[in-house]
Amino acid sequence: MPPERLDHPLSGSLAQVLDELGLPVSPPVLDGLLTYLDLLQRWNGTYNLTAVRDPQDMLRQHLADCLTVVAPMARQLGSAMGNADDHANRAWRVLDVGSGGGLPGVVLALMFPRWQVVCVDTVGKKAAFIRQVAVELGLRNLGAEHARVEALKGAAFDLITSRAFASLGDFTRLSRAALNPQGVWMAMKGKTPIDELSALPSDIEVFHVEPLSVPGLHAERCLVWMRPQALNQA
After folding, report:
1. CA 181/CA 178 separation, integer angstroms
2. What is the pTM of this model?
């Protein structure tokens, strides 16, 4: 770790989260995660990126929450796309819908430098913040669009993800045109959204619902994995 980060007040807490999740990271990635937290706190007062103000709470409620999906996401994406043994090194195209301050998009771009991650948000200031993060962290694989997801043109993403964006039905409907024909959706949710699952149209297959345990956060979390039903009819 660069010397200037050794005394960062959250370095120990972040290292503990990563250890609990079994996520080995290089010093530059650890440094990038800490710098991202600093940027999130610094810009939050001006851009209203999150209602969470305390840096320790940001680490627990936002960063740890997103880091918890990293291993399941890589594993499940590789399995669903037929590359289970090489998921982290594939150049997957990932879209983070309603990204806000870049969660989980920035975290994914840091953890998987070969993935091409695009964050889309309807609030211009939030998209501008993500672009600034990409510049300051040197993340050439991170981009941001100020747009509605349904208005994106020419997109074909292998994975489309969201965190607290919309119902599963709205999420899949609005982003469907941006999905690669062989791609999958992944929604980060709290408790299993039974009503949302039952309301999905018949052409959307839910192929996995995965419970998660976030270090330091005593709340229910799960991932809902979906794909177009037509994939099973080929």
Report:
1. 9
2. 0.92
